[in-house]
Amino acid sequence: MLYLKKSVKRRLAVSLGACVLMLIAVGVFGLYHLSKMNDAITRTFEGNVLTLADLGKVNEALLSTRVKITAEQRDRNPASAVTTQQEVAENDAIIDAAWNDYFPQRVSDDVERGIAEEFITSLAVLRAGVDEVNAAMVGNDFDAARRIATTTLRAAYPQVLDALHSLIDLNSAQASASHQQTSHEYVWTRNIVIGVIAGAVFLSVLLAIWLIKGIMTPLGKAQVLANAMAEGKLDNDINITCKDEFGDMLKALKA
Question: How confident is the prediction for the chain on average, in pLDDT?
Answer without folding.
Answer: 86
